[in-house]
Design brief:
The protein has helices spanning 40-43, 54-65, 104-109, 122-125, 130-146, 164-180, 213-225, 230-237, 381-394; strands spanning 4-14, 25-27, 33-38, 70-73, 114-118, 151-154, 185-186, 239-241, 247-248, 252-262, 272-278, 281-287, 292-300, 305-311, 314-318, 326-329, 335-338, 350-354, 368-371, 376-379, 404-408, 414-421, 424-425, 427-432, 438-445, 448-456, 462-469, 472-473, 478-479. It is an alpha+beta fold.
Amino acid sequence: MRATLTLLLLFVLSSSPLLSQEEGFEFVNPPITLVVLGSSTAEGIGTWPRDNAWVNRYRGYVQMFNPSNQVINLGKGGFDTYSILPTDSVYTKNRRVPDTTRNFTKALQYKPDGIIINLPSNDVANGYSVEEQLSNFNYLSELAASNNIPLWVTTTQARNFPEKQDRQIQHDLKDSLLALFPNTYIDFWTGFCDEDFIILKQHDSGDGCHLNNDAHKILLDRVIESKAFIGKLEATGFQRSTEDQEEMPPYMLSVGFDGTIDKNSSFQSRPATVKIKQGDRVLAVYSANNTFFQIEAIVDMRTPFEVIFESDYCLSKVIECDFINAIDYDDSGSFEVFYPLETLDFEEVTLEMFNYRFVHDELVVARFYFDTITSALELDWDFTLTQSQRILDAFLEPPLKGNKLITRWGNGKKKSILKFKNGQLTRKSKWYGENGKKERFVNFRNGQYHGKYIKFNTEGKKKSLRIFENDEQVGETKTFD
């Protein structure tokens, strides 16, 4: 006995994060201009085609908030800190003269709302001391502050200098920049080199100096994760209705679904609803007493949202996401979890979810969120797999006698030790793998997760810890190395 819910993604219209302006809306605030000063990494040397360079990718991200936002790239291969000093700087003997077409003075001509400096290694290659480089960085920082321009600085990057001493200087300079710019640095070092500060092969473009396409994607992620200029960027994404002047903040998504509900047996007489819910707010409700429905709402993509199908004593929650989950409860009482069924790329998708009997609980099968780095709808896999496991746990039955149930693998090793009270799981229950190592320790109360939920890796060592109260997670998940 089951009911089937089929959802068809009708439309996806968005404001700034997914590009373009909503019809009938206008941007509230003017666009911004960001300038990148730097050397070959900023220019994109090592990537092919150059569209893969982090600055070019970053421009696309910035323009998701407002297509009129600009990223001006003044980076040029071979530049060092002297190359980008202002035009009126005092000349230093045996040092580069500032390039007036790509230096700080030129950047000011664009009236920038922010500047990023990306100078990975040429100062060390030219034999400059750490103190000399930091002096130039500090000077540029003071200039930016005096012009009221937010300044972000990327750290040094690994480079395959022949001398270990030079590679060590690169590393030490990285730490010095972190100290000089504690709140406005971007980490371009971590994960790109080995313990000898040699670029890892998977990130090397082939010359031991420049990073490849995949590495530049990571650089982009680091810039976005730093949240550089995020307040200014979000402000450019605010739109307002041209009719009633009502404002719509960035990260808004207009979603619509239509579908059918195939109800058989006793399900036909039970009322059903389809909801779009965000946190505690129900944004839209449709009473699906017939077999067809349509529902739509505008959601804030900064908060996960759910598309829900509900029926008395039978509830499925359906989430549109990159990977679509289906959970099938068959007549024998066993569950099968299928994932991914298909990838959702804002194309026409038919989604089937199967109902299961889950009395007195509103279980979220999956969670769906907007990833600002990839500009895509993503599935929270860890959350989803935990919820899938919760369904399995809910259908565990007590032993015919007593309150403890011990199950075993085919090799005789313990599979689980379950404790029950009044037919419900209670206190600590334990699960083990076929190798005898611990898999999960879960505290229950009246059949609900309550207390510690510990997962272990294949070696039986702690992998993660959650704390629950009455089936709701409290706080963040703690992970262990």
